[in-house]
Automatic annotation (TrEMBL):
This is Uncharacterized protein. The chain crosses the membrane at residues 12-37, 57-76, 88-110. Keywords: Membrane, Transmembrane, Transmembrane helix.
Amino acid sequence: MSNLVSNTEKRPVLVVTWAIILFVSSFFMPYVIVFLIHNSFFQSREQWLFEAPGSGYLTFMIGMIWIPIVMILHVIIQSKYKVKYMRLISMALISLSIPFLLLGATHYYYIDNNGLHFNELKTFNKTSTYEWSSLKEVKQVYAERKEDGSVYFDHYEFITGDNKQIIIPYEVGLRNVEAHILEKLKENHVKVSDNYLDS
């Protein structure tokens, strides 16, 4: 009997401990988990560039954070009210994190010889392909730094035939393949413009 009481007392402590660990890890583990998922299932050598937008990591993070929140609420409510079927209710609430985890893990874009491929955040593992010839225009967007007023190259804006705008930050990965992209755009007579004089 004493063992049963002891185990009952320890269970909430264990749940809270795991909830704290999961909550803290939610702020850095999404980067590791999403990277491993992309590297294992979506990336290939044929791709020139593969990137996951920050919104994907943030969405995955929200899904992870939701789980320890439910765990803590479960312990608090049970300790005060002893709600019947609380475990089932908590499991149902935890399952709400699944869409966030799935959508966050499958939000990415990549560029290869065929064009630009984009998996939107609102779709689950549905990749839209935009061939080079289907692009209406590509804009090189410059911005101004608030600190010193200097102008810098901020991002590329790809405008598709259906007027969808896909923004890709001008970072190391893109810089490394920029020449290949511009060559493909030129081959397919896609207009390339910039706002340098306006910035």
